[in-house]
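Per reviewer request, we include the raw input and output of the structure prediction for the construct analysed in the revised manuscript.
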Amino acid sequence: MKLRKWQKSCINRASKQYLSGNNHFLALATPGSGKTLMASELANHLLKNNLIDLVICFSPSSIVSQDFCNSLQSRIDDRFDGLLGAKGHSMTYQSLQHLDENFWGLFFRFRVFVIFDEIHHCAGSNIDNANAWGEQIILNIQGKAKYTLALTGTPWRSDAAPIVLSKYINHDNKISCDYVYGLSEAIQDDVCRVPQIIAVENNNISVIHGDETKTFTSFESLLSQSIVSYQEIIENEKVINYIISSAQKKTNYNKSK
C-alpha cells in the first residue's frame, strides 16, 4: 500500500528524532488519516535498519489491537502473535495490569519499540496523578523502551489530567506534539472521513404544520405522527447548526482545560 505524503513525512521526522537522542515521539493525526499504517511502516523501518529488536503495541480495544496486529504483520512480513520467534505482539491497554516480570524483562534484554494508540486514554505525569494504565507505563516502559511512539486524534482528556509520556507548553498547558496532521490538512488532501451528524434528543420540539404549531417531547413521538420524515429532521438547517454549535463548544471547552 502506497504511503500518503503526511505518513512519509511523519516517519522521516520520527526517525530523525530517534537518531538525535529523543526516544519518544507524539503524532497527532485526525481520525481516519492512516495512523495505523504510518506506525506499522515506522516499525518496519526501524527493524530493517537494525535499530530495534521487538515491537509491542498497546491500543484501547481488542478490535483496534487486531487491526494493528494485521497491519504490522503485513508491513513487517513476519509473525506478530507474541509467541516464541515473533517480532512482537499487539495488546489492549487492559493487558497492562496482567503482564508479569517475565514480560517486562524483555525491555532489559532487547531493544523494544512500543506503539501507544490513542495515548490520551493513559494519564499521568508521575505515579501520584496516574490512572491504572498510565501507572504501568511510567513504571515499566518509560525510560526502558528503546523508542516509543504515541498516537492520538484528540490530544486532551475530559478530566484535564496530563497524558502519560507527554510534554506540555507551560504558558497555556497545551500538549506539545512532534507532528500534527490536522483536519484542515486532511480536507485539502481529500482524505477526510465523512462526518456522521446525529441529532441530539430534545424534549421540546416545535413543528409548524400549516397554521398550527405542534409540540413533541421526543423525536420518536414526532416521527410517529408522520408530520415530518426522518430525512427532513437530519437535513433541517436549525438542527444541523445546533449540533455543530454544540460540538464546537464542547471541543473549545476541552481544549481550554
